[in-house]
Amino acid sequence: MRAAVLHEIGQDKLEVLDDIESTGFGPGRVKIRVRATGLCHSDLSAMAGVLPQPAPFVPGHEGAGEILEVGEGVSHLKAGDRVVVCWLPACGACPACKRGQTQLCLAGFMNAGTPNFKRPGGDVFGFAGTGTFAEEVVVDAGCAVPIPDDVPFDIAALIGCGVTTGLGAALNTADVAAGSSVAVIGCGGVGISAIQGARLKGAAEIVAVDPVASRRESALKFGATKAISPDELPDAKQQVTGGEGFDYVFEVVGRSATARTAYENTRRGGTLVVVGAGALDDYLQLSMFELFFDEKRILPSMYGGGDVLRSYERTIALWRAGRVDLESLITHRVPLADINEALDQMRQGTALRTCIEI
Predict the structure, then answer these.
(1) Is 270's pLDDT higher than 90?
(2) Are 189 and 164 within 8 A, CB to CB?
(3) How far apart are alpha carbons 190 and 117 in whole angstroms?
(4) H or E segment and range at residue 209
(5) Measured torsion, CA atoms of residues 213, 330, 274, 257, in degrees rounded to the nearest 10
(6) Which of 4, 204, 235, 262 has the greatest number of beta carbons closer than 10 A?
């Protein structure tokens, strides 16, 4: 079968090969025919070594498709079922799951160290234990979440990561208050989803901050009340909040510099939500005095900060009702053979989400 492979960490191009075989099928596992997958910035971060991931590997973790085969002991799925790939499944038995913090379950991360594929040259891993830039993938049954027949595969793929992360940051983690002021720093697919979440919660002012003009224009269409470049943020803070700072600031870049900017633009007693996935050695510096004196809440948001399965269901319901726009998030479509074109679109900031059609 075909799959896009990164041979070494640090390379900026993927090679589409046709000698890949999915591996690991057996009890408790399912084989999925991938139909659509989105390119998430986390894929680029893993390729660059910002996020830890063994190589060689097949990127992709935001996918949807149909079940080809189920292993022994899998009773809730059958061949032909339409599913979204969940890269962070809950085991239901660990302390985090028992506390109701299923997004903190580590079971999914354990899958990342087991190869999902092989080729004549040896084993190949799947990013985040999945690897959806492939025609087929074998995953734990808990990673395959059934979706209704009326949800297209491309929409379902978005729900698998970016939309759930962004919406959840606003709805779950921050629980944005109606009438509040919000700034979102970084307006790709995840940031746009956070904007939609803040709009759903009734935020009065939503300021989108991004260096790319096309993304700023898109943010206005998705619910931002103002869209600015990063160097315009001080003026926006003065105009919108009288210089006090925003009630909520979402950092959706994953860098300490932007997190520091987000902190400085959060009002005293306000909330900074860290959504971007950053590097292990990139440290955010805060003084002990400002932490005490400003009383700003710093809330990291992992995969939307809530129960993933319930978040999927909520997103589908909101999409059906026309309360969130998912179709317009897909600004580009490319076949798997042109995957490197999608990477360039992401790096240049011209795409909110590129759908790779497999």
Answers:
(1) yes
(2) no
(3) 28
(4) strand 205-209
(5) -30
(6) 262
The secondary structure element, H or E, covering residue 125 is: strand 122-126
Mean pLDDT of 301-328: 95
Max Cα distance, the chain (Å): 63
What does the block give as tokens for 236?
Answer: 């926006």
| Alpha helices (runs of H) in the chain, residue ranges in sequence order | 41-48, 95-98, 107-111, 153-159, 162-168, 189-200, 213-221, 233-241, 256-264, 288-294, 308-320, 339-348
Least Cα distance to 183 among 233, 232, 222 occurs for: 233
Which amino acid is located at 30 in the chain? V
What are residue 56's phi and psi, to 5 degrees?
-70, 150
* Mean pLDDT, residues 304-333: 95
Residue 18 three-state SS: coil
pLDDT category at 57 given cuts 50, 70, 90 is very high
C-alpha 92/C-alpha 86 separation (Å) is 15
Q: Is the pTM higher than 0.90? A: yes
- pLDDT per position as a tens digit, 105-144: 988 777 777 899 999 989 999 999 999 999 999 999 999 9
Mean pLDDT of the chain: 96
- For the chain, the straight-line distance linking the first and the last C-alpha, in angstroms and rounded, comes to 11
Q: What Cα–Cα distance (Å) separates residue 163 from each residue in 67, 174, 200, 329?
A: 23, 15, 14, 9
Q: What are phi and psi of 191, to 5 degrees?
A: -65, -40
